[in-house]
Design a protein that fits this description.
The complex is a heterodimer of chains A (325) and B (275). Chain A is α+β, with helices and mostly antiparallel strands and 325 residues long. Chain A is built from 8 helices and 7 strands; from the N terminus they run H-H-H-H-H-E-H-E-E-H-E-E-H-E-E. Chain A has 2 domains: 111 residues, no CATH class; 186 residues, Heat Shock Protein 90 (2-Layer Sandwich). In chain A, strand 4 and strand 5 form a beta hairpin. By secondary structure, chain B is α/β, with parallel strands linked by helices. Chain B folds into 2 domains: 160 residues, Rossmann fold (3-Layer(aba) Sandwich), CATH 3.40.50; 100 residues, Beta Barrel (OB fold (Dihydrolipoamide Acetyltransferase, E2P)). Chain B is 30% helix and 27% strand. In chain B, the strands form 4 sheets. In chain B, strands 2-1-3-4-5 form a 5-stranded parallel sheet, with helices on both faces. A 5-stranded antiparallel sheet of chain B has the order 10-9-8-12-11, covered by helices on one side. In chain B, helix 1 crosses helix 5 and helix 2 packs parallel to helix 3. Classes of the chains: A alpha+beta (325), B alpha/beta (275).
């Protein structure tokens, strides 16, 4: 109930006064808890000496000139009580203040985590709306040429491009509270992408997708698989004169879902276009945010050459309610 | 009959360019198709085309690196009279390259090649080729666009943009002099000249031999500081005292504080013009 709902005037003034008083007390208590015992004792003694409480006792019988000893009587008990109450407050409030500090710290951490997640999701949404321009224009160029020479294939490539663009559009509705989608959805982006590339690269690209039907509904974070496949093509297979093979597979390993993208391309750091690994680091960060230590990203260079990247996440089948229509 | 080579890793794109070219320049003969940058260089040396169309993004060697190597191929007397070739870049979308292209220094065509835009580039090239034939018949010195210092410098910068991890500009030459290894700062070098199996590094004080051939040095030294005046010679522009002509009409470069004179080859003849 809002204090403004009460009648204005007198009540309001009391509200303000009592709030002010509460704040003063709170500040004083905080300060008391904050100072060391040594300091508080010294200050207490100074105050008692100044108000003449202990002026009679040595070594305090100093007879300082400007101390109002003639007012000593009423001040004496007041000062004594004040010191005693302060000591009590200092002891009692210590626990309270510590609890308050802990609560504040916890809130800060929670806020920063939530903020980080929000930033990540915002970046994701922006990324999702983009298909890499180079890929897009090269594909459109291929479609244009096929229209004249092989209209059937032109239509097929165009349909794949439409499917890819649709699958790449951000639809926040589909992203559940944890910010994940399912494996089937991610494959819905990768399949048309690879189909297009197979027409363009011809014998230079062989692909295999082995993901069983049952795993399609497993929970999987968005935009990771696409990133790995793009990397495999851009840095592994495209720069290799004869191209090679790209495989996407998924299986349950020790109760977790492991999705692997493997290519027989140039391997890491060998191609002129090799990235700086920032993409992989991004994926690691996102996995840590979403799953803590239960998820991982593994990179391997098999003996025969090429690269194998595996993302492992907890295996969770999305419920029917969460799945998009 | 003008002859051309097309290089692109995607067959559809090679076909597309071929069919567009046949529309706007029917007399042009496509003598070879390369599937990557390395093949582009090899086939150019083999077939000696007059024009080379290079896709920028290709496996093994990018279009830019292929262009730089093509600019190093032997020409004229060493190549049955082949005068080198014009270079046209082809790109679908390359945010780095488009800057250089828009400045009009390099010829380029966008994928998919549209007839009208391709015609503009083709007309430019044909005009340049006709001009060159005209000037050569008048005895003037003309060098190919790929051989001008501006172009070599631009290609070097482009290559760096496309691949930021390529090595930085060469600062030191490590040369074996008698028993020891000398570190020669590159600014001290007057010129590099091919000497059979080695490259001679000449400074005011001394000379040394290194294994790195001129065509590799061209990729690595600052092309602002060094100009290539011959397939086998790289000269420090700050060391040039002057350029004169000999009895055969060839340009000769004289070096400050050094007796040797350097010959400018026909391919690079257009470098030195009075301002």
């Amino acid at each position: 109930m809002n204090s403004q709902a009460k009648s204005p005037g007198g009540n309001d003034r009391w509200e303000r006064l009592s709030d002010r008083g509460r704040k003063v007390f709170h500040d004083y208590a905080n300060w008391l808890v904050g100072i060391t015992w040594y300091r508080s004792i010294v200050l207490s003694l100074v105050m008692l000496a100044a108000t003449g409480v202990i002026h009679g006792l040595p070594p305090f019988n100093l007879n300082l000139p400007f101390v109002p000893y003639q007012l000593g009587s009423p001040l004496m008990p007041m000062a004594l009580w004040f010191v005693l109450i302060s000591i009590v407050v200092k002891i009692v409030y210590k626990g309270q203040v510590q609890a308050e500090v802990k609560a504040a710290q916890a809130t800060e951490v929670a806020e920063s985590e939530s903020l980080k997640r929000q930033v990540m999701e915002a970046r994701l949404a922006a990324m999702q709306a983009q298909v890499e321009p180079h890929f897009l224009f090269n594909t459109l160029a291929s479609i244009e040429h096929l229209i004249e020479t092989d209209p059937a294939r032109a239509g097929k490539m165009q349909r794949s491009l439409i499917a890819l663009l649709r699958a790449s559009m951000p639809t926040m509705r589909e992203v559940n509270a944890r910010g994940t989608r399912d494996l089937g959805r991610e494959l819905g982006v990768i399949r048309p992408y690879l189909e297009i590339l197979k027409v363009r690269m011809e014998e230079r690209l062989q692909t295999t997708i082995s993901v069983s039907e049952g795993l399609m509904s497993a929970e999987f974070p968005p935009m990771m698989l696409q990133s790995l496949v793009e990397n495999a093509i851009k840095h592994g297979l495209e720069p290799k004169a004869d191209g090679g093979q790209l495989t996407v597979s998924a299986e349950i390993v020790h109760g977790k879902l492991a999705v692997t993208v493997a290519d027989t391309g140039l391997g890491f750091g060998k191609s002129q276009t090799a990235g700086t690994g920032i993409g992989l680091n991004n994926i690691r960060e996102r996995l840590a945010l979403l799953y803590g230590s239960s998820a991982s990203l593994n990179v391997a260079e098999p003996a025969g050459g090429g690269a194998t990247v595996t993302i492992t996440v907890p295996y969770l089948a999305r419920t029917v309610a969460e799945q998009s229509t | 009959m003008t002859r051309a080579l097309i290089a692109d890793d995607e067959r559809l794109m090679r076909e597309q360019l071929r069919s567009r070219l046949s529309e706007v320049w029917p007399e042009l003969e496509i003598v070879a198709e390369a599937r990557n940058g390395q093949e582009a260089v090899t086939l150019t040396e083999q077939h000696h085309p007059d024009i080379v169309f290079l896709d920028i993004r290709m496996p093994v060697l990018t279009g830019v690196d292929a262009a730089r190597q093509i600019a190093q191929l032997p020409t004229h007397e060493e190549a049955n009279g082949w005068a080198g070739c014009e270079i046209v870049f082809v790109t679908a979308y390359d945010q780095y390259a488009t800057q250089a292209f828009e400045q009009g220094v390099l010829d380029y065509v966008l994928k998919p090649a549209e007839a009208e835009r391709l015609r503009v580039t083709v007309d430019r090239i044909r005009k340049r080729m006709d001009e060159r034939v005209q000037q050569e018949s008048e005895g003037a010195d003309v060098s190919l666009p790929a051989h001008t210092p501006d172009m070599q410098h631009l290609l070097q910068r482009l290559a760096l943009q496309l691949d930021p991890k390529s090595p930085a500009k060469l600062q030191w030459i490590q040369a074996t002099v008698r028993q020891s290894i000398q570190m020669i700062p590159v600014e001290d070098v007057l010129f590099f000249i091919s000497d059979e199996k080695y490259t001679r590094v000449q400074t005011p004080m001394m000379e040394a031999l290194i294994r790195k051939p001129i065509r590799e040095l061209v990729q690595e030294v600052d092309m602002n500081l060094f100009w290539q005046i011959h397939r086998s010679t790289l000269v420090n522009t700050k060391a040039i005292a002057g350029v004169s002509r000999d009895e055969r009409g060839r340009q000769i470069v004289s070096i400050r504080g050094h007796a040797e004179k350097l010959e400018v080859s026909r391919s690079f003849a257009g470098l030195f013009k009075g301002m």
